[in-house]
Structure formats: C-alpha cells, structure tokens
C-alpha cells in the first residue's frame, strides 16, 4: 500500500527540509520509514548485522542524493529502490555460504499451553528457515508482497517489472517456499 495522504504530505515537507540542509527532515523520514525498511532488508539479506549496515548505507545514500529525488513521486518507493540496489550489490559481493535464520517473533502469550507454544515455535522456525533458504530475489518478492502488504500492481511498480512478470515471480517464489516447507514437514503438519 502506498503512504496515506498525510504521510505523503509529511514526506514532501521533510524532503524539502532535507534539500535545504535541515537535518530534521531526515529525522521525520526515518521515523516514518525505518521499521518497514529494516524488516525488508532483514528478510532480503537474512542477516541482522548486514541488514543494519545496508540500512545505514541506504539512509546515507538517500541524504546524499536527495536532490535527485522527484518530488512529484512518493518517497517510500524511491528509498526502497536505493535499499534494494545496495542489498543486491552486497549479496553479489558477499556470496554467503549459508544464510542465517531470521529470528522468529516472540510468542505472545506465556499463559498458553506449553505443548501448543512448542508447536507454534517449531512451525515458525520451519517457516523462517525455509524463507532464509530461498534465494534473495524470492525473499524480496515475498517480503514486499506480504510484509509490506503491497498489492500486485504496487509490487510490479516496486520491482520495476510489468504486472504479469511480478505475478510470475510471486507465484514461483510461493511454489519454492511451498516445496521447502513440504520438504521439512508433511502437508498435514501445515494445516
């Protein structure tokens, strides 16, 4: 989903401040976009330390190139394009031997049945491990679609591809994830 009108207006105001050299503009942009951006990078890169480095590089690059930003467009997609390029550059250079598992979120209720909690934890670990084992482009398309809740047209725009290509990439990523999940547990365990 694109930013709401008020967020878009705030982004335009903060971009204007930043262009004038007022760093408070960067603070406002950071406040609105940092959580989504970091989650995206963490999912794409699969390593918290690397995601933190690329996150910082993204904001430095955005601040350095703010004069190149077209104020008639939304800031979020421009920022994510910078992050994506830096992340893919890192992946090309690093060529990791294995991907670290993304930390599963903490379980919400400590009062739940311990057996149920263990089952939920195990399922989350399997999903996180299967996601981490996917290639970076598959992780990206799944993260943009589900973590950021982008519609298919928004996904196509974010990936800079035609809509049918975005649909095909999403379908292939989902099939690869399904295959990995079925490799770690039978279909009935996922119901």
Structure summarized in a few sentences:
With 191 residues, the protein is mainly α.
Task: Lay out the secondary structure.
Elements: H1 5-19, H2 24-45, H3 48-64, H4 75-94, H5 114-133, H6 136-147, H7 152-159, H8 163-184
Q: Based on helices, strands and strand pairing, what is the structural class?
A: mainly alpha
Q: Output the CATH homologous superfamily of the largest domain.
A: RNA polymerase sigma factor, region 2, helix turn helix motif
Number of strands: 0
CATH architecture of the largest domain: Orthogonal Bundle
CATH fold call of the largest domain: Rna Polymerase Sigma Factor, Chain: A
- Say what oligomer this is: single chain
Proportion in β-strands: under 5%
Distance between the termini: 29 Å
